[in-house]
């Protein structure tokens, strides 16, 4: 499977590369991560902020390759995260962890499952690592 294959089955759409859009998403991801350290917020909110960062980086990395998820299709978060292997070279093991965090996000958002401090910390650590990779691969000079 490739990004082009995902276009052919309707999971992705081609889009012009927009450096300003990519920069905005990356900066929004950085703001979300910075807010994680705000005192007085619990694991649910810390997780939500970190996960939002992961999703924004996934969307920015697709945009840097000239793609976006098909928002009229279910599972666009899953598609964006799974594409990180192609769009940023994220290793399979990391993709498995990120997908587990996506599933936890779904349980929390749609079933009200609480987020443990451990899961929130894992999400934050994965977010920091992903943002580090994004900083190298999504800079305006590289797009």
UniProtKB/TrEMBL annotation:
<dbReference type="GO" id="GO:0003677">
    <property type="term" value="F:DNA binding"/>
</dbReference>
<keyword id="KW-0238">DNA-binding</keyword>
<protein>
    <submittedName>
        <fullName>DNA-binding protein</fullName>
    </submittedName>
</protein>
């Amino acid at each position: 499977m490739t990004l082009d294959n995902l276009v052919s089955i309707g999971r992705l759409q081609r889009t012009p590369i927009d450096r300003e859009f990519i920069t905005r998403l990356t900066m929004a991801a950085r703001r979300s991560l910075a807010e994680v350290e705000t005192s007085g917020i619990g694991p649910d909110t810390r997780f939500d902020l970190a996960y939002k960062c992961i999703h924004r980086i996934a969307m920015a990395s697709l945009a840097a390759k000239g793609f976006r998820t098909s928002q009229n299709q279910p599972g666009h978060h899953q598609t964006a995260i799974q594409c990180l292997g192609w769009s940023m070279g994220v290793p399979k093991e990391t993709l498995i962890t990120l997908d587990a965090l996506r599933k936890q996000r779904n349980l929390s958002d749609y079933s009200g499952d609480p987020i443990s401090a451990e899961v929130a910390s894992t999400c934050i650590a994965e977010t920091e690592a992903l943002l580090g990779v994004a900083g190298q691969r999504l800079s305006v000079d590289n797009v």
